[in-house]
Automatic annotation (TrEMBL):
Highest taxon above the source species: Bacteria
Entry keywords, A to Z: Transferase
Organism (species): Candidatus Kentrum sp. LFY
Keyword DNA-binding: no
MF-aspect GO terms: aminoacyltransferase activity
Family indicated by similarity: Belongs to the CDPS family.
Protein name: Cyclodipeptide synthase
Pfam families documented for this protein: CDPS
Length: 189
């Protein structure tokens, strides 16, 4: 990528603003935490470089740590529906799109590396973890039985969610960021 291309991404800056905070109880205190979560929806206009640069800048000014989830395997559903791809082909394409996004946009995140340590994880990687099955079952159960949880997820778009302070985490966890039971994030393929 040419420097000119990156410079134009910064000069045509979008400003990020808080639309929703999850959990809602952290709405007025989330900026006191040391980490956040950014869910990236592949091929979504909210994550084109100028908008992504605005989001990353906003995070870089507030949080020392941020986990960036690349929704690769969940994107396979979009590819199946919008492009009529077979599930196996859609999965291969979605995984490739996830890798391409990280490779293409890494410099946007690197610009803020002195302020924020960004770590990247994909839905595909999460699905390979031993604890995944239990977390997924718990999320499905919560979605099916907790109306406020379901409604909050049906209204949600991938944005920024607050994570517990790193010092308070004992185990890796999966945050509830979903739009429907059928498309729970990182659902098994």
């Amino acid at each position: 990528m040419k420097t000119h291309d990156m410079d134009s991404a910064w000069s045509n800056r979008y400003k990020a603003k808080v639309d929703r905070v999850s959990p809602q109880s952290k709405r007025h205190t989330f900026e006191r935490l040391d980490s956040c979560f950014l869910g990236v929806s592949l091929q979504n206009r909210n994550f084109v470089r100028p908008k992504l640069a605005g989001i990353v800048q906003w995070i870089g000014r507030r949080f020392p740590y941020c986990t960036v989830l690349i929704g690769d395997t969940i994107h396979r559903i979009t590819l199946e529906v919008t492009q009529g791809l077979a599930p196996e082909v859609a999965l291969i394409e979605a995984l490739a799109l996830g890798r391409e996004f990280v490779d293409r946009e890494r410099r946007v995140f690197e610009r803020w590396r002195e302020q924020t340590q960004f770590s990247f994880v994909t839905c595909g990687e999460i699905q390979q973890r031993p604890a995944y099955g239990g977390y997924h079952r718990d999320l499905v159960h919560l979605f099916e039985t907790d109306i406020p949880f379901r409604e909050s997820n049906e209204l949600a778009t991938p944005t920024i969610a607050v994570a517990p302070p790193i010092s308070a985490r004992k185990k890796a966890s999966v945050a509830p960021w979903t739009t429907s039971r059928k498309s729970l994030p990182c659902s098994p393929v």
